[in-house]
Amino acid sequence: MKTKKLLSILVLILIISMAYGTYNISLSDFKLSDKNNSYLGGLTWSRSLDASLLKAQQENKPVAVYFWAIWCQYCAKFQSETLGNPQVKEILEKDYVLVAMDLDIDRDVARKYGVSYPPYVLFLDGNDKVLERVPGAVDANYFLPIVTRVRDEVRGK
Amino acid sequence: MITFGNAILYTSLVIGSVALLGLLLKDRKNNDLLTKLVSPAILIVAGLLTFAYLLLTYYFITGDFTYEYVWQYSSRDLPLIYKISGTWAGQPGTYLLWVWVIFLSAAWLAQTTKHATPLTRRTQIITLAIGLYFIVLTLIQTPFKSIYEVADVPLGFVPVDGSGLNALLINFWMIVHPPFMFIGYATMTIPFAAGIVYLLTKEDGWEELARQWARFTWLILGMGIAVGGVWAYVVLGWGGFWAWDPVETASFIPWLTLTGFMHAAALHRKNKTTFSTAAPMLSAVTFILIIYAAIVVRSGLFNSVHAFGETSTGTLLISSILITGVVSLVLGMRRYLEEPDKVEEDKGFWNKTNIFYVTLLLFVILAFISFWGITYPVFIQLTQGFKVNVASDTKNFFNVWSYPFAILLMLALGFCLNYKESEKEKQKKTLFIVAALSIITMFLRTETFYVLDHSSPFWVREPSIYKLLGSISVISIFPSMIYATAAIYQYLSGYLKLGNARVRIKGIGIAIVHIAVILTLFGAIISSNFTYTNQRINIPLEAKGVLLDVGDGYGIKVVDYSTRSLTETSYSGTTIAEVLANPSLFEKDVTISGKVTNFNSSGSHGTLVELDDNSGSIWVVFEGNVPVKLNSGLTVSGRIMSGFEKPVLIVNGADEFDASGKYQVQSVQLEVYKNNRKIGSGVAEYLQGKGGSGTFPMIDPSITLFGGDVYVIFQGVGGGAVPITLKIVPAVNFAWLGIILFAVGIILIMAVKSKSSGG
């Protein structure tokens, strides 16, 4: 009886510390989004499309709208390999207004633009005109030229 | 307005309450007023619910779209089998299935025990209470709700067609997965009820009552989970059968605690004081976790690929969890504190009860890891509004934390199975050696074989605890696995020598189930670590018939590409064949429909249109110029002019309909080559329909155990190219074999009737 009691207490301590530890690690390291922003692929994305379109108009930058979902297996890969690519990341950070749309929440926005699955990147200009669509978890070699071209197109106007 | 189906449910509720009341009167007041009515009442309710389920099935088969549920999950063009499986496609139908099976088991309890003992009576009271609760849930989300209650439509309006079944569910595995799960959920009711009664009153015999039901639940739930895995493998294109998706994980958790329960019960059976708290508690926890799983599946809160949307009965389910949880905990604690501290001599740590207890704790720990991993992100989301992930990649969390305990479980398996008090010292020595080997092998360095993938881009940024556990070499699973295998072999050969057939068969069954554990685990580890993936292949449509090199020595040839409709369109009216066979019969009035295969407009004189309904074709004549499209569907009525060489139909009225079918399938026929030698061929499909799309990968399975399945995912033609992901998945056959053996083993165990059970 004593041994079992001891074992139970040991397991209880183990479970509680594991639960507490993982809870805190997630809050510090694996936060995906809060009220205003999403943190995906090492970039900070706004969660408001309207505000971002306004900002794009003022700054004459294109908008990159990234449609994602927490359960999407390919999104994680796309974020780390494609969005995490240093060149892609630099261009997105400097020359784009970034918006992330959560497919579990922003379903109406997805429907409006005909986006049916994640990952999906939509490039818009400040007037809400669709410049380019990139569906699926494409790799950086494919993504980089598009990001560059769309940026130059908007700058050239 | 109460529909017929709801009337049946209300009647069941009333009659079921009478049965419950009768049992309560007998049990509390020893009043026999209603006792005679109890068993017949339970049988009647079981019959009524059977009828209700058949009625629902009938509505689906005949396509009665005046019922919202039928309208939502079915449509005319679905094949019969999917019309039937539509009954369990949504929550209302699964509640009905659930409650039906609860009352079937209550009927079994009534028939076999006649409620002769206080134990059976009380078990039935709890079973009925749960059953009635579920009838109420079914009534709240009833599948028998008519559209007139939901939508603003005139009475008597009948929708032409239903909205159709989600494309991902149109698949054989999805026909069998939900009924397995929900039948398994329902059959856990009696073990739960019996366990609670035991906690309350310490009445003997609860374990006999619960045993077969628990085994049956374990089998059905296990198969349901396995079928879900097969579905993920053949439909979702995950390239694996287990991805720790919240919903599949949620159904796995009660299965783990149920496995724990069965181990506890095995010892409790032999000595009633052993695990007298742990065994009933594990059965209670399993039942609670089953309700939790039901919430996870349907709540829409859990971030899963199974997004089924929110429900109105969620709060009721959550309150039932709270009630059963608090009751079980209080009873368990009371029982635990009441238990006299045995002052018998302390046998030390190494005795059978203690090491079995370690095994039980391992099941609880593994269940907790899974539970926590799917729960706390939702908790954070609800309380703080943040979305968090459990790890850089969801599956990492579960793999990292479960892995050390999987090794411990293998060690426990190897040690417990042949444990003998007399050989204790020798067996301990072997265990220590294997444990030491496991620890040493954790440090072996290989290229990729680690708990976490070192080549993943996440690796460098992992938090330190994940880096630490993630660097464990997976080679460390093998010492314990070999040890466990040897133990099972020894156990099996011991039983094979026995003369008593009953005992022998049971021993074989137990050995097979444990072999199954090892095979499944081995298949999962090897297939997930050594899958080759190339996911960026785009084959231009023009390259049809040409072998294209796609890298790493692999080549792919698109042999053919085609698009078709999943289901044949059904045409209303008289068939064209009937008209052609006897045209003179239809000279006055006839309605036919068909697909436009040809037309000829001669200006203002009229339009000639050829209609085909698969039984034959006929030309119909419209007056004037009518715009028609090729391949569209037309329903026309008019009269036949039979004087011509071939009869023609002169049209009075026409109506266009969609003849393209709701479910479009694109398919590519492929051949896969490795170093110019063909290694696989088959068809990969992409289905588009209601509720999105589904991929049906090409899987050319390998016949050998170690060989790799050639696995090709096709995601629908885009931009003139065929986008393809190629995977070679090795050793997955071990897992399938393991799953089959799980079933074979437990069926053998169930087939052997235990001496004391009598039922």
Summarize the helices and strands and which ones pair or pack.
The complex is a heterodimer of chains A (157) and B (759).
Chain A (H helix, E strand, L loop, with lengths): L1 H28 L1 E3 L3 E4 L2 E4 L2 H11 L3 E6 L4 H11 L2 H10 L1 E6 L4 H6 L7 E5 L5 E6 L4 H17 L1
Parallel strand pairs in A: 4-5
Antiparallel strand pairs in A: 2-3, 4-6, 6-7
Chain B lengths: L3 H26 L5 H28 L5 H6 L6 H6 L5 H23 L4 H23 L6 H4 L21 H16 L1 H13 L4 H31 L9 H25 L7 H22 L14 H25 L13 H33 L2 E2 L5 H24 L6 H18 L22 H7 L6 H20 L4 H29 L2 E9 L6 E5 L2 E12 L10 H6 L8 E12 L5 E6 L4 E6 L10 E9 L6 E10 L6 E11 L2 E13 L2 E5 L1 E3 L7 E7 L6 E10 L1 H20 L8
Helix pairs in contact in B: 1-2, 1-6, 2-5, 5-6, 5-8, 6-9, 8-10, 9-10, 9-12, 10-11, 10-21, 11-12, 11-14, 12-13, 14-15, 15-16, 15-18, 16-18, 18-19, 19-21
Overview of the molecule:
The complex is a heterodimer of chains A (157) and B (759). Chain A is α+β, with helices and mostly antiparallel strands. Helices cover 53% and strands 22% of the residues of chain A. Chain A has six helices and seven strands. A four-stranded mixed sheet of chain A has the order 5-4-6-7, with helices on both faces. A two-stranded antiparallel sheet of chain A has the order 2-3. The longest helix of chain A has 28 residues, at 2-29. Among the domains of chain B are: 1-170, Four Helix Bundle (Hemerythrin (Met), subunit A), CATH 1.20.120; 176-239 and 246-268 and 278-342 and 355-374, no CATH class; 531-566 and 663-730, Tick-borne Encephalitis virus Glycoprotein, domain 1; 576-657, Nucleic acid-binding proteins (OB fold (Dihydrolipoamide Acetyltransferase, E2P), Beta Barrel), CATH 2.40.50.140. Chain B contains 21 helices and 15 strands. Chain B has a five-stranded antiparallel sheet. Chain B has a five-stranded mixed barrel with strand order 5-6-7-9-8. In chain B, a hairpin with a 6-residue loop joins strand 14 and strand 15. The longest helix of chain B is centred in the middle third of the chain and has 33 residues, at 352-384. The interface between A and B is large, with 43 and 52 residues. Strand 1 of chain A pairs antiparallel with strand 1 of chain B.
